[in-house]
Here is the input.
Amino acid sequence: MRRVTRSLRQRLIMIFGGVSLLLGLVSSVVIENRATQTLTSLGQDKLEEISRSIARVMSQSLVERRREIDLISRLPTLTLEDWQTESVRTIIDAVKQGYRPYAWMGLSDINGRVIVASDGLLEGVDVSARPWFIRGKERLFTGDVHEALLLARHLQPSASPSEPLRFIDFAAPVRNSQGEIIGVIATHAHWTWIEAVIKESVSQEHTSHQIDVFLVDRAGQVLYTLSRTREVELFGTSSASGALNLTLTEDMFKEYISARAAIVGPGSEDLGWSIVVRQPREIALASVSILHQQMLWLGIGLSLLLVVLADRAAVRFSRPLQDIERTASQINAGKEDVNFSVKSSGIRELDSLSLSLAGMTHTLITRKTALQDLNQSLESQVLARTADLTEANRKLESLASTDGLTGLANRRQFDKILLEEIARARRHSHPLALILLDIDFFKHFNDRYGHQAGDDCLRAVAQALKKVGRRSSDFVARYGGEEFAIILPETPCAKALELAKAVCTTVRSLDIPHSDSPIGFVTISAGVTCLDTRDPQPAITLVSRADAALYKAKVSGRNQAFLDNSGHLDGRGKPTA
Here is the structure.
């Protein structure tokens, strides 16, 4: 009998110990693999979002520069072909000085001779062989980054002695009133502009997690790197995501996860740039190593515990073990009133064990009932918390669509409502008008009276916009800075222009003192346009045309409203005969 007991003990120890160890190893491997896959996927998604975010910011910056040079090329002063005037030189110098990254701006005739240039640089020089002039005669052009050639000896050197001056070109053809090309207007933007855009898009958190950012051209050359080292080279492309892998010469044996996003939008085809971000795999998967160690120790602990339990069970239960197993099976089958007494055992411990198991069964049944009650209570609490969370999300969504300073809708809400109103206007063939407004000389106002007074001025103007001719369907938003926008559904251009003039009058009547304004009070300028249902990109065109009309109001003396006359539309946004 002792040999049987000892054999059972050994078997239980080997079975429980071996199974627990095996399960521990298998579960550790499975969990580690799943965790690695999940964290790798999350890290990849995070890097893709970062790369797309930076690419979107750079695309928007390029669009703004292209739009600015395009608007300048259309100025009436330049289309008159008489460029040897003080007004032309004033425009060139003012635009160049108005945007710090511009290193040079010039106007060349059709033969490539620079007629007028900022600060007089390169005037009279033949630039007919320069790519920006050749391509600029054909269309609106964005040039790839290049080192300074003609301007190198005229401008201050780069802040880093080891890096030469580098520029990005923007050029556009200048046409006369008959539509004939009479010259090219161009500007060279400092490469530091691109560096600033990338640095502003990368947070301190990304840097602390060793996330590197690279600007890469279509040939695979690294144009700019926000990395821990400057020595970078490309060595391949991932077939799954198309993300370029980058290796550092100082740590070539490290593994990385990476993502790539192309910079798209108007003019991006001239550049072929992409944003590549990467992170060391060991940083992204640091928590997996910790989990692996925890799972290893947990498996060892469970194995030792089960071995001890198996040893104790073998000592206490040998011959009557099958009887107890049968009784336990009955309980497992759902019989809750089973008697745990072992027939003809004569063993006091087993009788006591039967009583203990009976008590345990009662306790489990009691706890089962209590657990069911607790689950019902938790379900009620979850429903209540879900309702609270839904209400909180609704409030957060409202805050996310409102400008905190003026109480008006913000730019994000404006973009959403504009798309909705354009779709509705097209669906019902209703007219749709847009007014863009800009407070005149607001920077001077801030400089003289302070930003607190500037905030008060913005709030006062916002309140005035709410009250002028507002219908329930009209939509007023803060477009950005000192700019506002009004969307007018079912409103023809003539009516929208009247409302824009009324807004100018109302803002002037606020009598907010402005000593740096020729009028002496705060005024506002407005640009008005209407939806053209033929346009394939109506939202972009609508904002661009309203902005062009606003620009005309500005250059024509401010404190007035201009109607965009780029197209002749009837009251429903359709072309007239």
